[in-house]
Amino acid sequence: MNWTPELGLILLLVLPGLGFAGIVLAGKYPNIRDGLNLAMGAALVANVVGLVNAVGAGARPGVQLADIAPGLSLQFTLEPLGAMFAAIASGLFFLNTIYGIGYMRGNKAKNQTRFFASFALAIAAAMGVAASGNMLTLFVFYEILTLSTFPLVTHNGDEKARRGGRIYLIILMGTSIGLLLPAVIATQVYAGTTDFMVGGLLSGHVGPIVGSILLVLYVFGIAKAALIPVHMWLPNAMVAPTPVSAFLHAVAVVKAGVFTMVKIVIYVFGIDMVRASPAAHWLAILAAITIVVGSVIAMTKDNLKARLAWSTIGQLSYVTLGAMIATPLALMGATLQIVMHAFGKITLFMCAGAIYSANHVTDVSKMNGMGKAMPWVFGAFFIGSLSIIGLPPFAGAWPKLILLMGMTDPSDRWLMVALILSSLLNIVYLLPVSVNAFLKKPDPVEAENAHNNAKPPLLTVLPPVLTAGATLGLFFMAGPIMDYLRPVFEGGS
Amino acid sequence: MANSKPPKPKRKPAAPAKPKSAKTEAAPVTDGIHPAARPFLWVGNHGVQRGFIWLVGALMLVFIGLDYTFNRHGHFSWEAAKGFYAIFGFLAFTFVVLMGWPLRKWTGRPETYYGDGPYDGADEGEHDV
Amino acid sequence: MMFNLLAMPINPAFALMFGGLLMAFIPQWRVRKFIALAGPVLALWLWLQVDVFGSYGGIHIAAIGLDLEPFRFDGLSRIWALIFIIGAFLNAIYALHERDQVQDAMSALYGGAAMGAVFAGDLLSLFVFWEITAITSVFLIWRSGTEAARLAGIRYLVMHVGSGVLLLAGAVLLHGQTGSWAFEHIGLETGLAGWLLLLGFGIKAAFPLLHTWLQDAYPKATITGAVVLSSFTTKMAIYALARGFAGEDILIYVGAIMTAFPVFFAVIENDLRRVLSFSINNQLGFMVVGIGVGTALGINGAAAHAFADVIFKGLLFMSMGAVMLRTGTTKATELGGLFRSMPFTALFCLIGAGSISAFPFLSAFVTKSLILAAVADEGHWFVWGVLIFASAGVLEHAGIKIPYFAFFAHDSGKRPKEAPWNMLLAMGLASFLCVFLGVNYGWLYNLLPYEMIYEPYTFDHIVGQMQLLLAAIFAFALLVRIGWYPPEIRMTILDADWLWRKPGRSFLIWLNAILDRLFGLVHLGVARRAQNVGRVLTAVLSPHGAFARVVPRGALAGWTATFLTLALLTAYLAH
Amino acid sequence: MSLMSAISSISGLRDLLPHAAALVVVIPLLAGPIAVILAKARLAWLWSVLVAAAAFGLSLVLLGTVLGGETITYEMGNWPAPLGIIYYVDSLNALVISLVSGMALLALLYGWPMVEREIEPKKQAMFFGTFLICLAGLIGVAITGDAFNVFVFLEVSSISTYVLVAMGAGQNRQALTASFNYLILGTIGATFFVIGVGLLYMATGTLNMADISRLLADGDNDRVVRAAFSFIVIGLGLKTAMFPLHTWLPNAYAFSPSMIGVFLASTATKVAFYTLIRFLFSVFHAGAPFETAMFDYVLAPMAITAMIVCSVQASFQPDVRRLLAYSSVAQLGYMLLGLSMGTVAGLSAGLLHMFNHALMKGALFMAVGLATLGLGVIQVSEMRGMGKTMPLTAAGLSIAGLSLMGVPLTAGFVSKYYLVIAALERGWWWAVAAIVVSSVLAIFYIGRMIEAMYLQKPPSHGDDPVIVVRSPILAIVPLYILVAANIWFFFDPSVPKGLADSAATLLLGGGAP
Hints:
heterotetramer, C: mainly alpha, two-stranded antiparallel ribbon, 21 helices, elongated, disordered N terminus, D: mainly alpha, two-stranded antiparallel sheet, 4 strands, globular
């Protein structure tokens, strides 16, 4: 059978499904299991590469999975935005799998089969989100993503993990069923369909007030995007093992949230409508507040993963901010932030996990002087930090620039303050981690601790170093990426 | 090359420093002297340093005197005043130095004030002194 | 994106940056040192290759309509690039004895980035290089390895990245207004955009109150690091100001303040490298004034003075670095009488001191006077007076204090070795350049961006300058003699950074505590409210609550009847 | 689609079974006493299964006929209406009848291991007999076209239900009180209903529903008619467990034998709900002012109150089955809400939810019954670790629970989706809000169970965890049939949705029975 984009679209779900089956069946034989897992990841990446090329060449493959009722169908259509998300998610998933294998083996974790099986389901869900052709399908996979990551969040199985998992589930399910679903259904009622449409499927069907209400429902309903006050699940989900955190923050979950955010602005509301909506302005302000507050709270956290979690809340509100400002440039910046942040943040999380694997240290204040034992890890962390801060020549610089370019309208421009402040705060809470590791003398008591010189497993060092290198490479790749995405934003004003 | 001998005025005999310097002068360390510096050791001489002020004073007077040999056509009228630059320079310098006292009173703090610890080259160099 | 590198002049900045990247991966120090020296030489060669002013090798990004001009060669960028090349070369020699891969790589990258910024024809390229200088230079501070350096480095980075982000914001706004990214004259009439850009440039140019990173970080940098740092960052900012804000009146006053205030601090500062940092501030003030005046003479003065400053300020830092290398300190209280064992260093230091003090036949004499003349030409008598005053102040701290307390004064008894040969060589070359520029000023004047007619060596100029300098030296001798000169004491002198290092820090700590408490209260409040709601709900709805209590069956029947009545009423009343 | 065609092909049998409409009631009614006579429990059970299967088969035949676009009118004893009793099948009750007989079959399959443990051996045959009579009563209510006949079958089913509930006394003596309460309130309801029917007879002189409807079409301002209307609504409301007349329900569900809990939860209130619809829309006329007033001021407010209050109550329940019972009252609120919209879309959504709710609640009660059987679980807190000890049951319970929450990929999503759409079309934003709040509350109370099952450690004796409990396969199969149905009807809801649509169109389009 020849590979066609339509087949590729189906394979997006089938490959992880096969992977899931393989992992479960080979559960007793860790080497075979992990081999299957990697093979699945590689096949998925290859498949996505094919799809990305096809979409880049102008194809818009579509497949209808189930037709439940008129206007109610599971429909896949891949466009550049989705192709980009699929590429990021599958690519980083592959790296994260390598890393996860190293991490879980290095830490001799329990229930590895369940762990990787859940991962396979979650990546399937993420692929589903990426390829959704209508809001209903997106919603369905959005929910599956929540459910399939739940066992991952609670993987450690202790009281803390359960509490984190409970909050994770309550907030994500509560908002999605309570806010997002009514919004989706209302969209169906007003527009007669939920199929994504260039220019916005709601435009012309609803007035500004109903539009605003729907926008608010959508924005808070997509709690995965972690806008204050629906962000609390994210810090609480930090109880999970590090590969999960990396997956939540950089590969799929939060990314799926902000991806959905961009998607609804472009295809459900349409840029013009969001721009005209009074609610969007306030939501943009809220996003700006989230950016600053996330950074400020990140500063106060000594636990590295907690710090990174709050950092994600701040960083991904860039996307929401861009989406709510809704100029083509702001949206381009927002979309680019999804890509660029992914590489930066996954680097940081993988480094955090590598440090933990080496010596079970989680607090920043106890990492002083560790740079000598783990130069590559902390070097990668440093590069990742620079990218997150948004300094050239690292990937994170582009989205900030383009976002700023999209914010020059006088009514928006003062929101730039949030971005500027955020960059400075990022330095304060991110850079000292690696700088202290290299420069600060360890506490004498800590220095006595033989663990301080422990080395992390190789498989946990290699992936972050690769992604750190990628942040440098992506800085120079930004042009092609933007060209690729351009058709999406040309539909707007 | 530099046409002015750099100033080497008299060292103020600071009370706590005195025993130390006396000790140094009592047992001059000749080992550390650079050969190229030997001809100029007189510069460190107490008398020379004390007398330096006269040299500078004399030179200053000479240049003030030169003011009388021509009419300065500067941008501002006061530039033409004889010895303007000397007076301005003297007053400015004195003012700057004397302001050091109150300034130090207001802004001086112990070295450990910011709690950053010492920072003079803890790790570097071959401090063979 | 595409690069058209062939058959076109190549940006000399790439020579340095490429070298820096190479060095980052080369552990053999000899190879690195060779690259470090070859980089500036290659850059110079590339610099010489460009015959025609223009912009080369543009990059176009279609998706967001972005045109980048990373290499614009014109009168203004030409001279700045040259001095950066010279600076990089001298610094490389000065660092030959050092075996630090990080510093080797970062110094070259940093110098290259600074040069890249100078060549940037658009604000985005400028931003990119602007930020790279921040990232790379901070390593020169951190590598000294002290706790103080680490903290100062972080503060430094915050301010410098902040400067870059302000620049970016301003650039974006400007682009919104004009539709162009080109880095040409900006001016404050562009409103917010202009102010943001000015602020961004101002941080790196160490405007008053924004200057503290300089005195904070430079003295804590490594020995070679301080020398490298003194060459690039601030001069790059001066270039940006000259390009973007020439003729802004506000700069005249900002510059005047910059020349004046550091001299007071420098008097009582004990650390000689910190004294030099204040001196940088003061010298930048002269350049800023020149830019503020904005005439051909003023801009030329700023350019020429920046050129001279890289050399003589570098020389002074080099001499202090040598002292530091040999004695481990640059605190005036610990030093004195070093001329006995470090005569060459002392001599070079004196030349540097003379240069910065603008003794005739040394470099600053022919450059600073351009600025003074420009100010006077425009009739700013008060500012002119401040500059003359500041010149006396320069003499005090840079001309006298540095050499005097390090090499003369009372004998500290320290007899360190003379500086290594490479340091002496670097200092010697710099000293030579100081004299060379002071004498062959025509060569420098020819490189300046604008046409002008000016002759520094007039009789009244020489006499006036000598009067000023000698009277000031006389005052120094007198004050020391009568004991009014403030003695050197080891202490910290507060500066504007006190604002954020003390109350600012306390405020943050306080804010954090308050936020914690606030969040706690909110949580508690929510919890209490929830508890109350929960209690009510429990009372009504729980298995033991009012609703679920086993009701007597009669009551149930009654209740049903009531409900029936309600239904009947509804049915009857409807119409 | 495939399901629909499959059913249509069965409809070819209708030539062989022209009397299907009568047989579907008569067979179980007559088979009930036979079951008692069989005396041997296992034999009685087998017989019951056979009968239920036959009833189900017959109802599928009827369903096939209706899907073919026909309606069936069967004259009992060939006495034409209005003198004789006629049975009448259209898309509305075809769905209900299939549901009732299908659930009866599944409940019986599921019930054997349960009954074996829960009911005294000598009462078992009697239990199955009563069950068959109850089934006949419920089908009869649904199929008859005669108002008084409705009352008769309603009482047949009710009285047998009281008995069945009371048989839970073997497990818990409270079953007797619960049954007695049920009996009192059920009787009040029946009485109100029969008063209403009497008043209707007074006003129209006939008991045939079609005739009543025709006669009422003219003079609907009659006070007698209005009184009849009120009595019937309240009477059936009581049987439907409409808030606040639901107080009999939680205990009746909670203390009855497991199998009866499953059956009642998925059928009894549904049949009453059907009857309510039948009277509201095809006996009375939806456009009548008093009916609109009743919808707007009584039914809709009570519906959303039920949706929220009972969901909160469910969240508080420590007892699993009471939790599910309160949830049922809340879910009935959804159906009443759809009904009270008075639009085709609303009614259709209500009917669809009725169908889906039967599937999910049936599955939930089955799973809970298994949990009780295996681990002695009565309280939510006792379900801890069930994900480990009873993985299959726990998984089934979770999926059905997700369906109850209205998560996509489950049938519960589809009906809530249509309900929200109907509310929006009607402009009832507040109803949408209530649905949302109630769904979120459902997350809470279902989440409590899921959390206990999967996130808490199983109970252990010292260090040894309680070993995995094997559930009887005979009980697991029907559970998973329902679970699969919950998923199936997300992807292909065409049969119930089509029936609900055509029923709603028929009822509101003024089509007389």
